[in-house]
């Protein structure tokens, strides 16, 4: 289904963890990326940069990642070093739903490893966008890059495409940059974005995604 309104795009976007092998035309990807250039950024820096892979170059990268140990030191801390119980609970809740949809239990180490390996092959997405930017950029620019990625994710829905943002690939950031010819000294790797058509038949793409009630997140004053 193609989203026809922004609301439809927002409502139908979800992190897809099972893709069909159907290829995505180059022009569709280029059209999405071209339109996403209008995403906002502080100072109009437009700090985002990306390389997009499909076909053999993507398979070659995935084969390397599946063989490689996790890099040390890490590219960046995916989670804050100290989080409160409230945030830990949110993580546990989505983890239980996600693993539950796969039939992977809490103590199923092999099932968890298998899901980790599927993460490395972007859950079968035929296209992988690799997102990075200059190392000197700070927190405001990381946020700009997030807005660009969300713009891509919503435009993808309009094309009937789905996406999977992937911080997990940061465990192989240096390997990825070497594969695509990006200078590790000047650029930090942020995440991958798997792009393709969702497999609508599997429970993987159907589980609930809990959200915090609105009144816990925002305050309206003076209305
Ligand atoms: C920047 C970013 C990185 C993410 N990295 C991963 C990842 O590596 N693997 C994964 O399965 N999901 C990843 N996610 C998906 C989140 O788990 C997901 O957005 C969250 O649970 C809410 O679910 P939803 O996107 O389906 O609404 C990532 C999301 C974002 C925004």
Structure characteristics:
binds flavin mononucleotide, 8 helices, 223 residues, FMN, alpha+beta, NADH Oxidase, 13% strand, Nitroreductase-like, 41% helix, Nitroreductase, 4-stranded antiparallel sheet, globular, oxidoreductase
What do you see in this structure?
It is a single chain. By secondary structure, the protein is α+β, with helices and mostly antiparallel strands. The protein has a single domain, classed as NADH Oxidase. It is 41% helix and 13% strand. It contains eight helices and four strands, in the order H-H-E-H-H-H-E-H-E-H-E-H. It has a four-stranded antiparallel beta sheet, sandwiched between helices. Helix 1 crosses helix 6 and helix 2 crosses helix 6. Bound molecules: flavin mononucleotide (FMN). Flavin mononucleotide binds next to strand 3.
Small molecules bound in the structure, each named once: flavin mononucleotide
Terminal CA distance reads 37 Å
Can you write the helix and strand succession as a string? HHEHHHEHEHEH
**Looking across the biggest beta sheet, what order are the strands in?**
1-2-4-3
What is the level-2 CATH architecture name?
A: 3-Layer(aba) Sandwich
How would you sum up the major sheet? 4 strands, antiparallel
CATH topology: NADH Oxidase
Assign the CATH superfamily: NADH Oxidase
Total beta-strand segments = 4
Low-confidence stretches: none
